[in-house]
Here is the input.
Amino acid sequence: MTNQNSTHLSCLYNYTKENTDHLGKEEIKFLYKKDKLNKSLYRTHLQAAQEWGKTWDLIRGNMHTTLNLEVERMYKNVDDKISRLANLQIERADEKFKF
Here is the structure.
């Protein structure tokens, strides 16, 4: 390997290492926050179960169903918008390249 190639590879290695180190730190921060939130949610769930007893399962099930329906509706709206935009792009491309 020539000296120029090794210099180029060293620069590439350093660039990659710096970016992956940054991503690693960001991922660790994200996982830490996620773990903290999961523990908080678990404690809240236990507290609610203690306060509400057997009724908590019904309440939790109702919240779960309601949230799932809301999220499905939101994703459907986003999917519909993406489909409309994709179709619009295709139509414009067809018009642009008509002979």
The CA atoms of residues 9 and 50 lie 60 Å apart. Residues 3-52 form the longest helix (50 residues).
